[in-house]
């Protein structure tokens, strides 16, 4: 912050850096008896308290010190959501090293690329990733040791992995006396690579300051709204932008924490919700599809589940309505990016809206929402000129704020900012009240005769049809209009619908000229490592598709 | 923050100072149409929006610039809660100057002392304080001009005040184009003097950083819990620790804001609650006495009022129960100090408590609560040794955190910290779950035969008696025990109770030896400028009181 001029009169307040270690110290002191419950990779349920977690995190910090890990060194994890991963979150960042969470769904070569790029010194991994690590280990040039997150009796009898250690052995040897160091709050705390669909993955390098400000902001009533009465189950993985900051905000607020481990199917999640009294969860839409289908097929209800934040990709309005009206679960639509720690906006009503009709409320709640304080948004045209907030004008969405990156790790990709703003690669409209709605990814927008058609709107309508499971809309070549929309649909098992039915379904829901020119049915859609539909793959598949209108 | 070591690897996040101006920019952009409603000193109701407020704040910032106000200069206010005061909050701090809010209930000589000590350059004041300002003006050596917060037609025809300006004229001449400057976040933003009962008043000099971190923390679900659906009426004055930060947190969250002006009687407050749909309010217990008595006497109900935060002094349990059980209003007990911006703790339940009986919940909610994340607490004995958190051991309460002072303005009072912790002057117990309960001010605690008796507990029991309006308990001389408790009571109008009835009322509620030795009845109790009962005055009155037990 030193580049900003100082006033001749400075405040006389205590100087304390914003550090991640202060979260676990706070949780230990004020919520020491609150539980952390984990469904483990081993299959059983593990439970302990925030005080236990603090104790073991301090043991791990001492272990890292013994291993020679120093401030700024990168320590990687390849793990599901669980208590040992949580200990790594606090021990690595808290001791001044940098936690590098790797997405295990990536291809081994990508994992190795990322580990080498990050120059990771150690890799902590869940036991079910042993085969992945065996494949990756020979490719990783900087990793000095591998730590398997398990007890001694789960360790493999023999392995090709050099310097393989057992997590429980490693920390058992270490004292739980540890003084968390104080250092500059702009020091790096954690590293997360974007799952870029083009080019090499690029790292977002968070600081303690950015993480702590994000933690305060994300717990606010209009963001994740986490309180000491909540029981929080992060379905969003800890390797995916720090599980949207939930491992931090639960310690800030004293909420009970429930980890699902690798069991992300509807049945397992539902059981954990009911057994542990989960009140709040967060994840991408694809996960909720599986949960809702389990609940509906078995005529179940949620006893304690009250609120979910859905992000990662737009939540289909039909899913939002099902949650709200059939199960009484409030859905908060949120939007963010790896480059934004990740939270940028959340969609909640203001006092002006509480007396609106249900339909009017719903149409607001389908938007991505307003900026969470700290973040600012704007939309610009291709020349960088700011566009009006009228709810109609499409523009490239730019963001800034203290938890937005200024550059990627190692300056990968060079200067990414546009006059101090980060270009999100999304296309959005913003209305008069500041509600932002993503209409498309810049590269997914369909350009028909010079006008922009938002593919997401078309997909949302399609998935509202009772026979449609998933839908993707892409622009394909048209001799007159340059591009016209093609709808690719996966039907629900045992359900049927025709092309004509689907196209008729658009009547009155959208401008006539936005209606797709054609529909094709597919068995499945290609998904990326974070569960998002890979539009570029679909565009490749249908590159030479000839529209009947062409 | 520069005294802390940097990591070899710094984060790559945007560098943005935490500045108060970002709040009003945010409110303008994302909550521009949300209202600010003020009952004015003039008597009428004024309403405008956050966008209007931003526009006029920028005009005022330009006006301050014209007046020659520079970064770090102090600008004072002597004003009730209202929209012009709000504009001063943002224009003064936002432009880099320091807002010095003065308590108009102080004696004119104290006001002059404070203004001279702060070296205020200008004083902005409400029109009803004209006589006070006329008395004070000749005593103020540094003030170059006085600005009356009113229209031209309210200005006095003649006055003894030198360089008296009209607020509306002042800003009418100025453009609403203004670029809020960026500067170091540790720059001073505002100044508030403690109403010390002994010695000269001392100033707490807040920074932009401390104010912004406090704003995030105070809006959290377990603190003030402010959302965009709230309508907030701060009864706590803006000259009293920045109205507990509410003028900031409403802009952070988009809540509608309602200002009561000087009309703090029960009837006026109630009318504003009902007219404007107030959901949330905050103030000291004495204000709520008047509101509850108006509501009860007229058989009224609250239509929208749901939640209040009570602080400043301990909330009598009887008041908490009345609010909760008769009116369905949740009371959150909070504790803080001018030296803490002011919020330190708030009392809410955790998930462990939600299934407890009403009585068990009530006994938790009567405590001052757990530290809001950012603040840390400890209790120590007179030698500075930390005492256990067992819910029984009394100790001197110490605090630290990024919104706690490290010293007073101009180092008044010298080194105030004890090994980095601020001594609050309160005596407290902390239980196993981290809930803190103030048992007394260090100087109010009654020392009977080497043991400490908490005066607050004794007062709480007294005011739970149906005939008691107010009560104060002080230690008076006893030849055997050094001190024994004397209860001073003000009866409710038209109600009667005897000494023996009152002493019997303590039976079974408290250890026998804590029961006061005597009761005296008074017509009223002396109140300080912030509405607190002045125990030192009462102690003076009864200095030579002879107890019947002596």
Folded structure, characterized:
The structure is a homodimer of 550-residue chains. Chain A is an alpha/beta fold. In chain A, 28% of the residues lie in helices and 23% in strands. Chain A contains 16 helices and 25 strands. In chain A, the strands form 5 sheets. In chain A, strands 2-1-11-10-12-13-14-15-16 form a 9-stranded mixed sheet, with helices on both faces. The radius of gyration of chain A is 24 Å and the shape is globular. Chain A starts with 20 loop residues before the first helix and ends in a 9-residue tail after the last helix. At the A-B interface, helix 1, strand 9, helix 7 and strand 16 of A face helix 1, strand 9, helix 7 and strand 16 of B.
Task: Write a brief caption for the model.
The first copy, chain A, is α/β, with parallel strands linked by helices and 550 residues long. In chain A, 28% of the residues lie in helices and 23% in strands.
Topology:
Two copies of one chain form a homodimer.
Chain A: H1 21-30, E1 35-39, E2 45-49, H2 50-66, E3 74-78, H3 83-94, E4 98-101, H4 108-118, E5 122-125, H5 130-136, E6 145-148, E7 164-166, H6 167-172, E8 188-193, E9 203-207, H7 208-218, E10 231-234, H8 241-244, H9 246-253, E11 256-259, H10 266-276, E12 280-283, H11 285-297, E13 307-310, H12 317-327, E14 330-336, E15 343-346, H13 358-365, E16 370-371, E17 376-380, E18 395-400, E19 422-430, E20 436-441, E21 446-448, E22 451-453, H14 455-463, E23 468-478, E24 482-491, H15 499-505, E25 518-521, H16 535-541
Helix pairs in contact in A: 1-2, 1-9, 2-3, 4-5, 7-9, 10-11
């Amino acid at each position: 912050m030193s580049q900003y001029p100082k006033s001749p009169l400075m405040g006389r307040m205590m100087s304390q850096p914003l550090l991640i270690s202060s979260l676990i110290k706070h949780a230990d002191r004020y919520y020491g008896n609150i539980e952390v419950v984990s469904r483990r990779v081993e299959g059983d349920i593990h439970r302990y308290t925030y005080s236990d977690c603090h104790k073991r995190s301090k043991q791990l910090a001492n272990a890292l010190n013994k291993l020679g890990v120093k401030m700024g060194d990168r320590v990687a994890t390849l793990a599901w959501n669980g208590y040992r991963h949580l200990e790594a979150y606090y021990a690595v960042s808290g001791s001044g090293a940098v936690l590098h969470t790797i997405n295990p769904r990536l291809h081994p070569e990508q994992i190795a690329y990322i580990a080498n790029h990050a120059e990771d010194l150690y890799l902590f991994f869940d036991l079910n990733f042993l085969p992945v690590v065996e494949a990756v280990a020979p490719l990783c040039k900087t990793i000095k040791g591998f730590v398997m997150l398990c007890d001694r009796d789960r360790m493999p009898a023999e392995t090709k992995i050099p310097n393989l250690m057992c997590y429980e052995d490693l920390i058992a040897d270490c004292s739980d006396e540890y003084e968390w160091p104080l250092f500059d709050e702009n020091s790096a705390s954690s590293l997360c690579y974007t799952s870029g669909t083009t080019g090499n993955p690029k790292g977002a390098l968070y600081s303690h300051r950015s993480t702590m400000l994000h933690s305060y902001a994300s717990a606010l009533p209009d963001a994740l709204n986490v309180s000491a009465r909540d029981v929080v189950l992060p379905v969003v993985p800890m390797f995916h932008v720090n599980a949207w900051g939930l491992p931090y905000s639960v310690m800030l607020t004293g909420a009970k924490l429930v980890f699902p481990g690798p069991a992300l199917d509807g049945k397992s999640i539902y059981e954990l919700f009911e057994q542990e009294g989960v009140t709040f969860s967060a994840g991408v839409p694809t996960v909720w599809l599986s949960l809702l289908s389990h609940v509906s097929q078995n005529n179940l209800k949620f006893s304690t589940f009250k609120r979910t934040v859905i992000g990662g990709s737009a939540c289909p309005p039909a899913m939002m309505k099902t949650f709200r009206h059939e199960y009484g679960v409030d859905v908060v639509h949120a939007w963010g990016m790896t480059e934004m720690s990740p939270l940028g906006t959340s969609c909640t009503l203001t006092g002006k809206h509480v007396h609106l009709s249900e339909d009017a409320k719903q149409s607001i709640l389908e938007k991505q929402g307003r900026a969470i304080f700290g973040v600012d948004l704007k939309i610009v045209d291709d020349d960088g000129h700011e566009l009006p907030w009228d709810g109609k004008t499409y523009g490239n969405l730019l963001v800034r704020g203290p938890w937005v990156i200024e550059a990627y790790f190692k300056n990968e990709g060079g200067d990414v900012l546009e006059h101090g703003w980060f270009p999100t690669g999304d296309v959005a409209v913003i209305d008069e009240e500041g509600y932002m709605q993503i209409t498309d990814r810049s590269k997914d927008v369909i350009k028909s005769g010079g006008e922009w058609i938002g593919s997401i709107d078309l997909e949302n309508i399609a998935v509202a049809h009772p026979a449609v499971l998933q839908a993707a809309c892409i622009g394909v070549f048209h001799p007159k209009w340059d591009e016209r929309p093609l709808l690719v649909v996966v039907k629900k098992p045992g359900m049927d619908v025709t092309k004509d039915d689907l196209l008729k379904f658009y009547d009155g829901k959208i401008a006539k000229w936005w209606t797709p020119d054609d529909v094709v049915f597919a068995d499945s859609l290609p998904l990326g490592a974070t569960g998002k539909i890979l539009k570029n793959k679909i565009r490749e598949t249908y590159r030479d598709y000839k529209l009947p209108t062409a």
